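Recall from the previous chapter that SMILES is a line notation for molecules. Here it describes flavin mononucleotide.
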Amino acid sequence: MPDHNKNILSIAPMMDRTDLHFRNLLRLITKNTLLYTEMINTNTIIHDQNNRFNIESDCRGPVALQIGCSDPISAGKAAKIFGQSNFHEININCGCPSNKVVNGNFGACLMKEPKKVGEMIEAIKEYCNIPISVKTRIGLDNFDTDKFLEEFITELDNKKVTTVIIHARIAVLKGLSPHENRIIPPLNYERVKFIKKSFKHMQIIINGGIQNLNQAKHFLKDFDGSMIGRAAWDNPWMFSKAENIFFNNENNISRYEIVNNYIEYAKKYISLGHTQRRLIRPLFNIFYGVQGSKLWKQQLNDIANNKIDINSICDLVYQIEEILEEAA
Ligand SMILES: Cc1cc2nc3c(=O)[nH]c(=O)nc-3n(C[C@H](O)[C@H](O)[C@H](O)COP(=O)(O)O)c2cc1C
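With both inputs in hand, we obtain:
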């Protein structure tokens, strides 16, 4: 049974950001927010030479796997593998505008090939019972109309996809970098509202430009869920309020406890050979906007460079929490 509450709040897939460790830090902060992996190419899953997929699937709570895929054959082969995993959702990337992705004929350019996307969905369903969703943009290049997006979503609807995440900007495939593609094309929430009105039975999730949880909550008037990307990386601690605001759960855990728990987790992966820097990285922004955050980042840098011991983090959090309490 699909859980229709699952997508009301989610953290977006972000390459080089939402890796296993960032997600596991967020999981300590919020039990119920749906977390997405960064995009993983189906070829990486099929060949999995570095055991990457196996590591990524070591996750707790609601987590969605985002795949990058350009053809039904590799979709089916990968589905045989991820069909055995405990991901709660498989998401097909139809929104990424990077050159590499476009040259590989997947990501945003798939919006021009709805039939092929439909075939990939069929291929995945053959081997996998996990619900499938699609993440897309509101258009691409000159295909910037309600009708174009409606036709694309119609194909997904025909294939019984129930959840679509829409980044409310077009993708510009020639002339803009992925970074510029997240700031230059203007946000157009109205087109996403039009889609929601036309496909009332589908779960339409809004993405793009959401800065905080209050804004995310506000969007639930018009959409079935809100997805937050960059703001989650910049300020992960804001999700400590997610349980209260979205899931009717009490959550009074402190930053001190979270960091303590995370350090225990980090030590396990460091002993398995993951670098200290990679484990420390998700913690950098946990004191976003707080007096003392500069000191925090300096110390973390020293820990990441193996200059001081990882256990000293907990003392530092304690000191910063004390400064915060005094200031309150
Ligand atoms: C560093 C970075 C990497 C991203 N990687 C992916 C990705 O792997 N797959 C994807 O669908 N979107 C990716 N995105 C786009 C985000 O998922 C999201 O759609 C976009 O940032 C807009 O949401 P926001 O305004 O809340 O950040 C990435 C964004 C950033 C900033």
